Amino acid sequence: MDDPLFNLTGRVAVVTGAASGLGQAIAVGFAQYGADIVAADVNEAGLAETVGRIATHHKKAIAVLCDISKPDDVAHLFEAVDRTFGQVDILVNDPFTLARYKPEDLTLADWNKVMGVNITGYFLCTQAAGRRMIARGRGGSIINMSSIGGSSAMGRGNFAYSVSKGAVNQFTRELAIEWAQHKIRVNAIQPCQMLTPAVKKWLNDPSTDPNLVDHLLKGIPLSRLGEAEDVVGPAVFLASDASAMVTGTLLPVDGGNLAFNAGGSLTW
Q1: Is the confidence at residue 1, as pLDDT, over 70?
Q2: Are 36 and 59 part of one and the same domain?
């Protein structure tokens, strides 16, 4: 990587949710731009695939099994970071889980499961990474994966998920202010529907409305669903010196969805 603005050489990135989808694409993309990678997930086979892809870019990578909703797992993850690299410069919080029910039917157990991964897990990883960044005194970049659902309501049983992503948005803003004094930048990415393996499985489920994709595209001015690779450039930007003055931002990667009024039209 010749461009110093985007060069991540010498930096260590911890990417959670790195076994597939957006997390995997970001982990491999960071390696392409020079970073060494700690790839964390609950999917051992997927982690092995991610590490293998990183190896083609001749960067060091380790895989750590980790359920970010469990404090002991997060402690184990960062012990591995300390043992292998002795530093963390970039953290990506990517995992999520769903509980697609009507609000009146949602159980407390399902609510707690969603919040445990989608916001408490982000807190646990961010606190662990932040403590290390503060102690090292060289700043860092934290990138949270939010969603368009964190800023506008989607319905269709996304109640708990969207509430958790709204929490991620404010989590991002507050930490950006709290940790600016330590030169730790905290930002979030807000994707629209991305064609990850999980979304493809959902769309191919016989119980899913066959007209759903057409409905989704009505709200995306660029007229396509996202691909995992669409988040790599934005993530590299937020991780690198190219965004040295960017913190506390929520960056939509959504084909224009959040800019598009529900009563708007693409035609005259």
Answers
A1: no
A2: yes
Whether 122 is a known active-site residue: answer no
Look at the block and give the residue holding tokens 């964190």: 150
- Give SS3 for 148: helix
81 has pLDDT over 80: yes
In a domain, 257, yes or no: no
Q: How confident is the model at residue 197 (pLDDT cuts 50, 70, 90)?
A: confident
Structure tokens at 18: 């790195």
**158 and 243 inside one domain:** yes
- Let me know whether 140 and 208 are in one domain: no
> What DSSP string runs through 92-131?
EE---------GGG--HHHHHHHHIIIIIHHHHHHHHHHH
Q: Which of 33, 101, 122, 161 is catalytic?
A: 161
Contact indicator for 175, 247 with CB cutoff of 8 Å: no
Q: Which domain holds residue 161?
A: 12-191+228-252
**pLDDT tens-place string over residues 234-255:** 999 999 999 999 999 999 999 9
Q: How many other C-beta atoms can be found within 10 angstroms of the C-beta atom of residue 154? A: 16
